[in-house]
Design brief:
nine-stranded mixed β-sheet, globular, about 290 residues, single chain, alpha/beta, four-stranded mixed β-sheet
């Protein structure tokens, strides 16, 4: 039985997660024409969807059927959107571990999809998790079966420090850590040396093969190149295929634990949310078999 089997019909919810990540106010739209082909101003009518999103909320929204308890640890602004954010977490059944910064507004983002690509525009002046926020959430992390975090926090100094502190804190309390190696253009933003501290603290790493290959910058084939990359050899969930979503290798130091299709079909399967649902299924599988 592979983790992908639980995408459509997950088992009874189990386990408690604490999720670190962004919380943003987002506007989404899907347009029929390729925006990369546009050479002049154009007005397009398309359905627009406002929602509370960000990496932490997106994952929690798609993981609720798998996990009995999910808490989001993060920082938001203090403005008219803040009550909406808190109400959204209540509606999702997610525990609110957010700190509202009275000196900042909430971060916003726009996601635009066309038939071939996604453009995500994120506001630069968004609240960032701090080490103090992490220390305030120590009890939640210690009581969790898993800490889930992602690589967007590596892109800014303060949130990077908070991420590494949270991962180290989790491990000190015996809470395993799952790390999503994003954004997918991470190799254009950071060298491998900037990512290794997080990989050293992760028990599970979820990554698309092109992202990981870009970071390694070496000709040695995956997954063998991963042996010895970190000191403790995490489980690597390597996503591959024409769109880096169709197939997964579950690999851990010289041992291919699983190889399975995800069921994703480009042009047929809705991509938005699929990766988070797949991750939820895979983490449930891993926790069940530890």
């Amino acid at each position: 039985m592979t983790p992908a089997r639980w995408l459509g019909s997950p088992p009874e919810p189990r386990f408690a997660l604490t999720v670190l990540g962004d919380v943003r106010v987002e506007l989404r739209a899907r347009i029929p024409a390729r925006f990369t082909d546009m050479e002049s101003d154009r007005l397009v009518y398309a359905p627009l969807r406002p929602l509370i999103a960000g990496t932490a909320v997106n994952f929690a929204r798609n993981a609720r059927e798998h996990f009995k308890h999910i808490g989001i640890l993060g920082r938001v602004g203090d403005d008219s959107f803040t009550p909406v954010i808190r109400a959204t977490l209540r509606d999702l059944g997610v525990t609110d571990l957010l700190y509202a910064d009275p000196e900042q507004e909430n971060g916003c983002a726009v996601m635009l999809r066309d038939p071939g690509a996604r453009l995500l525009v994120a506001g630069e002046r968004a609240p960032r998790l701090t080490p103090d926020d992490v220390r305030a959430g120590r009890a939640a992390i210690a009581a969790s079966d898993l800490l889930v975090a992602d690589g967007y926090a590596l892109l800014e100094e303060r949130s990077r420090a908070a991420l590494l502190e949270a991962m180290a804190l989790a491990r000190s309390h015996g809470t395993p850590v799952a790390f999503d190696l994003v954004p997918h253009d991470l190799p254009d933003r950071l060298p491998l040396a900037g990512v290794l501290p997080a990989l050293e603290l992760a028990d599970v790493v979820i990554t698309e093969v092109p992202t990981l290959a870009g970071l390694l910058e070496e000709g040695a084939p995956l997954p063998g190149r991963l042996d010895g990359l970190t000191g403790h050899d995490p489980l690597w969930l390597l996503r591959d295929g024409p769109t880096a979503m169709e197939h997964v290798l579950a690999y851990q130091r010289g041992r291919l634990r699983l190889s399975y299709p995800t069921g994703f079909r480009s042009g047929v399967t809705e991509r938005t949310g699929f990766g988070d649902r797949l991750t939820a299924s895979e983490l449930y599988w891993w926790l069940s078999h530890r």
